[in-house]
Amino acid sequence: SSCISGNIQGATIVDALDTLYIMEMKEEFKEAKEWVEKNLDFNVNAEISVFEVNIRFVGGLLSAYYLSGEEVFRKKAVELGEKLLPAFNTPTGIPWALLNIKSGIGRNWPWASGGSSILAEFGTLHLEFVHLSHLSGNPVFAEKVMNIRKVLNRLDKPEGLYPNYLNPSSGQWGQHHVSIGGLGDSFYEYLLKAWLMSDKTDEEGKKMYYEAVQAIETHLIRKSSRGLTYIAEWKGGLLEHKMGHLTCFAGGMFGLGADGAPNDKTGHHIELGAEIARTCHESYDRTSMKLGPEAFRFDGGVEAIATRQNEKYYILRPEVIETYMYMWRLTHDPKYRQWGWEAVEALEKHCRVDGGYSGIRDVYNNHESHDDVQQSFFLSETLKYLYLLFSEDDLLPFEHWVFNTEAHPLPILHKDDGNKEENQK
Ligand code: DMJ
Predict the structure, then answer these.
(1) Which atom of ligand 1 lies closest to the CA of 249?
(2) DSSP assignment of 272-335
(3) Residue whose CA lies nearest to ligand 1 atom number 3
(4) Is 420 part of any domain?
(5) Is residue 419, in this structure, part of any structural domain at all?
(6) Which residues fall within 8 angstroms of residue 363, CB to CB, at 6 or more apart?
(7) Which is catalytic among the residues 15, 18, 185, 362?
(8) The one catalytic residue among 15, 233, 319, 368
């Protein structure tokens, strides 16, 4: 019916395309491709999250194209990118969080501070949109994301930090909440990866990344009394000593950014990545299922443990394994493979169910209570990062590829790439 809005169907299939390809599951990849050709449809009355559709569908299609060279994926990616463009029709060009892709009408999450857009949402379009311009020859996609940068750079930042909320009409920050986990996370990731993906020509992205990390170290990174480094949340100058599972991706990010760190700080950034990996491993090790909770605290005598019932769940998230994979590639310390294998065994033991894998309601309990959901990022991220952790470094090497925030590999755009795509393989 025309007044009920639906969704774009096929997230799990599209999110898994590149994983199937990388794992050489040729039959399954072919089947998935045929599904995309016949059934993937963006002409639906759906109110979608611009961020989620971008990282899962646009990112998934772009990677499938670059890996396989199959034109259908390029075509679908550009078609979907065009559908997302009306989200940028705001006074500042900061996109809406939600968009009806039939009507082109956008709005923000009703819960977000003062009608704001979310940093981790509008800040996580850059990599995909640069590739959409590259593959379509249409500069509009890259222009939209470069404008987001411009708006951010005109604003004063409290203590050099980026608040999670920005109002797309006034161009002003909402609440001064800062997080390297939910609502903030992948914004920082994309500053670093934009620079890497540009073959290290995007000096603005580089500068923004390393300045942000400096502010994060000064204001958010702390050490517990028993020596665990963690990243707290900042609320208008006050720290909440809580670290989300989502925040654990930052270990890998610090490691990946270590090489370019200014002022001889390479070793320091690697060390920071290693410490975050260790803390996040502790959050897994201190549960009965050896799978980490959604959030853990450093408060009232506890360290790296969830204290609230509604933070004890595990929904097959990848961030801790992602950090193991980066730290393994960067250091070859065998502990990262050991820790990864512990996660494999725990997933098999506690999450495997008929027909797939399920999230767990309480990782501190001795009996699994399954939530009966297999998130699409389990196939795109968790399994892919595990596979890469136990593969050789020349499978999707960091010198040629960056992973979008949903683990979809995108080729680095070398300066002379303009008209030939072959050298990206
Ligand atoms: C994924 O969709 C992406 O990794 C995103 O950046 C954060 N949340 C999930 C995985 O936990």
Answers:
(1) 4
(2) HHHHHHHHHHHHHHTSSSSS--SEEEEETTEEEE--SGGG--B----HHHHHHHHHHHHH--TH
(3) 406
(4) no
(5) no
(6) 287, 288, 289, 291, 292, 293, 306, 312, 313, 314
(7) 185
(8) 319
28 is catalytic: no
Residue 416 alpha carbon to ligand 1 centre in Å: 32
Which of 147, 178, 209 terminates a domain? The answer is: 178
400 in Cβ contact with 410 (< 8 Å): no
The whole domain housing 104 covers 1-178
333 within some domain: yes
185 is catalytic: yes
pLDDT at 10 over 60: yes
Domain final position from 178, 213, 235: 178
In this structure, are 161 and 58 located in the same domain?
A: yes
**pTM exceeds 0.90 for this model:** yes
The CATH number linked to 68 is 1.50.10.10
Tell me: the pLDDT tens digits for 136-174? 999 999 999 999 999 999 999 999 999 999 999 999 999
The closest residue, in CA terms, to atom 8 on ligand 1 is 246
Q: How far does the centroid of ligand 1 lie from the alpha carbon of residue 377, in Å?
A: 7
- What is the rounded CA–CA span in Å between residue 277 and residue 326? 10
Q: Say what the pLDDT of residue 416 is.
A: 76
Does residue 405 have a known ligand-binding role?
Answer: yes
Same domain, 146 and 201: no
Of all atoms in ligand 1, which is nearest to the CA of residue 56?
Answer: 2
Q: Are residues 86 and 226 in the same domain?
A: no
Task: Compute the distance from residue 264 Cα to the ligand 1 centre, in Å.
Answer: 31
CA nearest to 199, candidates 410, 408, 422, 420:
410
Q: Which atom of ligand 1 is nearest to the CA of 319?
A: 11
Which tokens belong to 124?
Answer: 């996580």
**Per the domain annotation, does 422 fall within a domain?**
no
pLDDT at residue 422 greater than cutoff 50: no
What's the token pair of residue 269? 């950034």
> Is the shortest distance between the CB of 186 and ligand 1 below 6 Å?
yes
Check if 294 is active-site: yes
> Does the C-beta of 193 come closer than 6 Å to ligand 1?
no
378 Cα–ligand 1 center, Å: 10
User: Both 149 and 216 in a single domain?
Assistant: no
The total number of structural domains that make up the chain: 2
Q: Which of 407, 400, 405 is nearest to 425 (CA)?
A: 400
